Amino acid sequence: MTKFQFTTQINASAQKVYETMLGLKDKSSYEYWTAAFNPTSTYEGSWEKGSKIYFVGVDANGKKGGMISEIEENRPAAFVSIRHYGFLDGDKEITSGEQVEQWAGGHENYTYEENNGITTVTVELDTVEDFKDYFNQHYPLALGKLKEIAER
Predict the structure, then answer these.
(1) Over the Cα atoms of the chain, what is R_g?
(2) List of domains in the chain
(3) How far is CA 61 from CA 11, 23, 88, 94, 131, in A?
């Protein structure tokens, strides 16, 4: 697996950026910035530490799919760690097999550091070779959308 890091600075408090990024007060804020990956991106579940959460969307044929994950850590307005451990294929959970093993133990971590009202968001992401170009192209767009909505 390859580790990527993306960073952006947002003119808002760490608390506001954290709540906006995770959609804690309004799920549509999460859906707004993650639409850079898939226009139907959303989540099902809880951001609470130890919770199972689905990151889902619908493909061109209307079929639901996405990642099955666990929130390993959630320190409000400071750090969130997500461990991906499976896939959704429609309503079927796939947690073993060759495709899952490629991603096994992969994390997506969000760090929030506020200084004088400006929050630096750092995303660290583990990914497989096939998705390197995708994330290099889409994560900067997504963080731009997060910045836009969090600065409102």
Answers:
(1) 15
(2) 2-150 (3.30.530.20)
(3) 39, 26, 15, 20, 21
